[in-house]
Amino acid sequence: MVRGMTISSTNGQYSLAVHTQGLSKRFGSRAALQAIDLEVPRGTAFGFLGANGAGKTTLIRLLLGLAKPTSGSIRVLGRDVTENPAGALARVGAIIEEPRFHPHLTGRENLLVHAAARGREAQERIDGALERVGLAARGDDKVKTYSLGMRQRLGVARCLLPDPELLILDEPMNGLDPAGILEFRRLIRELVDEGRTVLLSSHLLDEVQKTCDVAAIVDQGQIVAQGRIDELLRGGARAIEISADRPLDAARLLAAVPGVTRTSDDQDVLRVTLSPETPVDREIVTELLRRLLDSGIAVDRVAPVTTSLEDRFLTMTTRLEDRL
Amino acid sequence: MFDLTLIKADVLKLRRRHGMLALAFLVTAGAAVLIYTVTALQHGANPIKHGPAGGLKNYQNSIGFLTTMVLVVAALVGATAGAADIESGAFRDLAATGRSRVALFTSRLFGGWAVVFTVVAATATITAVAASILAGPLPVLGATAVLDGTVSLLLAGALGTAVAVGLAAVVGSRGPVIAVLLGFELAVLPILSALKALGSARQLIPTQALERIAGTAPSGGVHMALITAVLVVGAWVAAPFLAGAWRTRTQEI
């Protein structure tokens, strides 16, 4: 459950862009997704994190009505996808894995083909969508002449045709160069600033941390954590790195300090791991330094270790070696 | 289920395949031009040995050949219309709009028909005009003969396209469907039609039913009631269409 977010349908406005309950999908005897309860608040950039094969694309296919759930319910923008796919997906744009197009048609013609399934308003948005993603000048070139980055941008233009309230982007940054990734990140933030919701599925943890406000971590078909990025990071192990003389003596000394669970020495840099209850604040740092200085050990540097989403991800998910 | 905007989109996808369209016109309208040009030149060079190129009999003979060519074009265009979205991967994005998948499938059939019927119209016009102009002293074409010939070509186009669109949707790839249909239409069906041992079972052969509806003499000598012929053609259109619609509606992508 995302803290601070409530589900309501008052005034016809559903506060969640995506809401699944007990969602499961089996392929034969293999469970791809198990009892997924996902809540994507409206107006946020939501990261859906997982290793390859964790179930991210399966979930997206279910959200878009491309596959049927074995059990559970899916509501997108307040409507049940299984019962009313046209209503639920009318204002949803999506890129599923690599965006695919008819290569013998131009970019504009591909958008026209897609808009035909959306309605008249979608056709009227084609020029604006091409303009927005910077493809106005190349819109009349055949897609087979486009680079991967241009096809990704055309995929975004296609997403914009229904004037989406929700964009579902599955690994959208795959294959993009650094400039393309920066541009994509900026575009996502712009879309969120316009009040749209972006659900971004990725295995690029750094990208999600930089782009998203809220995230869920999926592992082996189950959501293992869900919440605001800063909340997810706060739940991680905390540590302080200290460079000091006589590191072995220092490690032995600091291991005895209340609140310290572990000390380790890595190339003369001490890593002091704290218990979850111990805050990294002035008090504990002062205590550690006092112990060292009182024992005549000089200190060069003290720095808190910043927990990254990658650290949290790795502590929460199953390592490859554990699966084998 | 009938959405003109979706059909236009499917026509656009086919219209932009210039090589396929050129081939389609070449083997039908182009073949008609070639047949009448060559026979007219032969008649001009040696009128005693070679009769006039046009006239009723020559018209009916050319319609018989062009019906087979229209089946070839229908297989080509229909399989392309049926499999293009799936092969390119764009079908997943179309389905993700929430639009009825049956509507998406049906528009492929109507789009295929629109292209094939355009080819048929050009072929039928060229054939009728050439047979009339080049009739010489031979019996000229009546409206009934032209109507029969055009209906024969249209039915062949409609039937072949429906079968190809449906099969391509089931298989998900146009290459194998074109190969199987061409083999079936050009090799298997003529052999089956000629096998008298099959008896009345030959009434199920679609080309025999087409010839019966068009009013031409059945090439295999199979006789059947008109209603039987209509039912046979209807079944040949319906079975692959329903299979394709079912596959499109239920497949997980």
Task: Explain briefly what this protein structure is.
In chain A, 34% of the residues lie in helices and 29% in strands.
Question: Can you characterise this structure?
Answer:
The complex is a heterodimer of chains A (324) and B (253). By secondary structure, chain A is α/β, with parallel strands linked by helices. Chain A folds into two domains: 10-234, P-loop containing nucleotide triphosphate hydrolases (Rossmann fold, 3-Layer(aba) Sandwich), CATH 3.40.50; 238-306, Alpha-Beta Plaits, CATH 3.30.70.100. Helices cover 34% and strands 29% of the residues of chain A. Chain A has helices spanning 56-63, 85-89, 107-116, 120-124, 126-132, 148-160, 178-193, 205-211, 229-234, 247-255, 282-294, 309-316, 320-323; strands at 16-27, 30-41, 45-50, 71-76, 79-80, 92-95, 166-170, 197-202, 214-219, 222-228, 238-244, 260-266, 269-274, 299-305. In chain A, the strands form three sheets. In chain A, strands 6-7-8-3-9-10 form a six-stranded mixed β-sheet, with helices on both faces. In chain A, strands 2-1-4-5 form a four-stranded antiparallel β-sheet. In chain A, helix 7 (178-193) links the parallel strand 7 and strand 8 (197-202). In chain A, helix 5 packs across helix 6. By secondary structure, chain B is an all-alpha fold. Chain B has one domain. Helix content of chain B is 77%, strand content 0%. Chain B is built from nine helices and no strands. Chain B has helices spanning 4-15, 18-45, 56-88, 90-95, 101-133, 143-171, 174-194, 206-214, 226-250. The mean pLDDT of chain B is 91. The interface between A and B is medium-sized, with 34 and 25 residues.
